[in-house]
Structure formats: C-alpha cells, structure tokens
Amino acid sequence: MPELPEMETYRRLLSERIVGKPMTEIEVNREKSINIPPSQFIQELQGNTITKIDRRAKHLIFQLSSGKSLLLHLMLGGWMYLGNDEDNPDRTKQVILSFGNEELYFIGLRLGFLHLYNAKELTSELSDLGPEPLDSTFTIGKFQEIFTERRGMIKTTLVNQEVIAGIGNCYSDEICFEARIKTIRKFGELEPSEFNALFNGMKTVFHRAIEAGGYMDNPLYKNDHKTGGYNKICAVYDREGEPCIRCQTPIILETVSSRKTFYCPNCQN
Fold first, then answer.
1. Which among 21, 203, 259, 260 is annotated as catalytic?
2. Annotation marks residue 58 as catalytic
3. Where is the Formamidopyrimidine-DNA glycosylase catalytic domain (predicted)?
4. CA–CA distance, 133 with 172 (Å, rounded to integer)
5. CA–CA separation, 204 vs 174, rounded Å?
6. Given this model, what pLDDT does residue 198 score?
C-alpha cells in the first residue's frame, strides 16, 4: 500500500504535469470507486481545472477550480498512470481523467477511492488523522507527548493513522531500523534517547525515501525513472533472510497483530 513517500512522490510529479490543465473528458468504469452517481461526477468535473495538488497522510487532494476537491486514497493495490491510448498499462482502469491528449488512469481502485467533496466535507473526512510527520511544527516535544503515554507495540502504534499519519508497514520497519530499535518492543519501555532516535529516524527515512521516489515500482508515466527508487535501497522491509546492511546478520520476518514486520535481530535492540 502506498505510504507517505509514495503519495508525496505522486504529488510532486503530477503537480508538474497536470496542474492548470482543464479536464476535457471523464470516464467512470466502477461506480463504487466514487461517492456520487457517475453522471453527477462527470458533470461536476467536466471542464474543471486542477489548481493544486496537496497531500494529507496517504491521501492526495486534487483542488479544483470549482472550489471542490477530489480526495484519493489508493489503498492496497491502487496506483496511477499518466499517459495516452498508445502507452497505458493493459489493466482495468476504474476512473480516467483526460487532459486533452493526456490521460490520468486510476488503476486497482478496488479498496481505494476517488471522492468529490466540498471544503466542509473534506475537512470532516480527514479529521481523524494524526499529525503529519514532516510538518515543521511536529517537533520532538510533540512526538514525545504523543507516544510517551502509549503502551502498545511500536509497530502497531506507528501504523495507526489516528496517532500519526502516513506511516505503514514498510516505513515503520525502516524507521525502527534507522533508530536501531526492534519493531516488536513497546513504547512504554523506551528510554528518552530511544524516543529521540525514533523521531530522528522517522525524519531521515522519509526524506531519503521521498528523494528516492518511494518504493512503489510501477512507473507514473513513460520513461519515469524516479518512481520506485527506494525499492532498491530498503534496509529491512521485504528482505527476510538477506544480510543486514550494517552487520550482515540475516533479516528476520515476524508477524505482529496480522502485520509482517522485518528487522535485524543483532543491531536493533
């Protein structure tokens, strides 16, 4: 499932390519992927322009010239491709937004969605999300304030979107590796120095992952060499049995509350 770095990569790349362009045609092939009748959805978007693309947690927000917004959550298996009839993937597209001779395909939206909201509805939809990890106002003090009272396991707490937004299975493991802390430990037993390590690890891993283009390996457009770059440099995620990049100890895979977690048993304490 795309996490913060993947959605931030999409936001940056799409902002360069579709912002300011009017939508010339809209196609809906799966009604359950949207939140209003297809005829209304098409009517609302036809001729509209995307004025800005924001990100909140694992969501993208396409702000429209009408004042409304499209809220995208790709969920498990969802991705996007920007292209045309000649180079698009041979996959079922649930929604297609056309910008003249270029089209944005939404693929794999079986669990995900593309919903149209006014400003009040959008605020309500996002109201349960925790703070943004990369927000300049999210300091070590606020991090400690949120997590000091937590008693649950690090892995399951970090992926709770109501506690902190944007972290999922991949980056919870990568953050803990960077901090040299096992994902299966509990917040209640951490020392102050370990809180600092987690906070700094979170910032470091996210900046590194965004710079690399996230771990999603489906290209966003033809000749896209940016998207998915982090997949090549993941430290522990999906690397069971491979040698740790720090100490060469084989990476371990465990299942915690139905979630896979990868870590080094030697250099993560």
1. 259
2. yes
3. 2-100
4. 12
5. 10
6. 97
Has 219 been annotated as catalytic?
A: no
pLDDT digits (tens, 9 = 90+) for 132-184: 999 999 999 999 999 988 889 999 999 999 999 999 999 999 999 999 999 99
Beta strand 59-64 with 79-83: parallel, antiparallel or unpaired?
unpaired
- Among candidate residues 166, 190, 184, the one with its CA nearest the CA of residue 255: 184
Q: Which of 11, 55, 56, 58 is labelled catalytic?
A: 58
2 counts as catalytic: yes
| Token pair listed for 128 | 């349960």
Full-model pTM: 0.95
- Residue identified by tokens 């998207």 is 227
Q: How many CB atoms lie within 10 A of CB 107?
A: 21
CA angle (226, 227, 233) in 5-degree steps: 85
Cα-only R_g, the chain: 20
Query: What's the rounded Cα separation, in Å, for the pair 164 and 206?
Result: 14
Give pLDDT tens digits for 98-114: 999 999 999 999 999 99
- Domains of the chain from N-terminus onward: 4-125 (3.20.190.10), 140-263 (1.10.8.50)
Alpha-helical (H) ranges within the chain are 4-17, 38-45, 119-125, 140-147, 154-158, 169-179, 192-212
Of the residues 3, 103, 125, 178, only one is catalytic, namely 3
Active-site option among 2, 5, 133, 219? 2
Tell me how far apart the alpha carbons of residues 221 and 223 are, in angstroms, rounded to a whole number: 6
Question: Position of tokens 């799409």?
Answer: 14
DSSP 8-state class, residue 68: -
Residue with tokens 């936001």: 11
What sign does the CA torsion over 33, 36, 38, 40 have?
negative
Catalytic, 31? Answer: no
